[in-house]
TrEMBL record:
It comes from the Bacteria. It comes from Maritalea porphyrae. InterPro entries: DUF1499 (IPR010865). The chain crosses the membrane at residues 12-35, 41-69, 81-100. This is DUF1499 domain-containing protein. Keywords: Membrane, Transmembrane, Transmembrane helix.
């Protein structure tokens, strides 16, 4: 004789609500990265996924209690809701902690007063950036290289290309100063604006970088980290070029 064991309704609903969370997140990231989904819609989708995960967590916990007292089946279904909800809590905690530990300004520069930004095809000098936090990002500072202007600008373009930046435009400020404007994309698809300014003197090429987020009120240190990464790559390329020049 077959004995029917009822599955807890709470556990069933916990599993049902938890099931679409991961596909929703993956699809949102994919669509945002390729440009099908705008940043505000992407952020809304992530909040919806987190809300669903938290609901599944509550239902899963209630399911545990119900199963314990009733003897119903459904431990696996309830656990799926609890696991998804805990992942959402861990992700939210990670975001909060990362935000607290890193500089959250959405527009930073190694030289805020002299580095413009390109907005809707117009070069803007009237929107000063914030200085990079030198305590957190010690290597994100103005560079001075003993290279010619032509060689230095070529190395700047090479460094930007190696990081996958999309070239947007180039403008001059006088005879000695050149601004290259780029678009950079994060791993989850947020697009940011980057300016690399070079100024040639009699002996040096001075390089400053500005990075600004197009969306959001915080960047979790992304812009400053991007500047630091670019300058370290440029340091490497300049050193290689100088070694090759010395050998020749």
């Amino acid at each position: 004789m077959r004995v029917f064991i009822r599955t807890s309704g709470w556990a069933i609903w916990a599993a049902r609500i938890a099931r679409p969370v991961l596909p929703l997140v993956l699809l949102a990231v994919a669509f945002h990265y390729i440009g099908v989904m705008t940043s505000p819609v992407f952020v809304a989708a992530i909040f919806v996924a987190i809300a669903l995960a938290l609901v599944s967590l509550v239902l899963g916990l209630i399911g545990y209690v119900s199963i314990w007292y009733s003897g119903d089946a459904g431990w696996r279904e309830a656990s799926s809701g609890v696991i998804v909800g805990c992942c959402a809590i861990l992700f939210s905690a990670f975001v909060v902690v990362t935000s607290a530990q890193n500089q959250t300004s959405t527009d930073v520069s190694t030289s805020p007063a002299t580095t413009p930004i390109l907005l809707e095809g117009e070069v803007r000098n009237d929107l000063p950036a914030n200085p990079v936090n030198s305590d957190l990002f010690r290597l994100a500072s103005t560079r001075e290289y003993r290279v010619s202007a032509a060689e230095g600008i070529a190395l700047v373009e090479q460094a930007a290309n190696s990081l996958g930046w999309l070239f947007l435009d180039q403008k001059r400020s006088g005879a000695a100063e050149l601004h290259n404007f780029y678009e950079s994309k994060t791993l989850i698809g947020f697009k940011d604006d980057v300016t690399v300014s070079t100024r040639a003197t009699a002996r040096l090429l001075i390089v400053n970088v500005r990075s600004a987020s197009r969306y959001g009120d915080g960047d979790f240190g992304t812009n400053s980290r991007r500047i630091e990464q670019f300058l370290l790559k440029l340091d490497e390329l300049v050193e290689q070029a100088q070694k090759q020049s010395a050998e020749n």
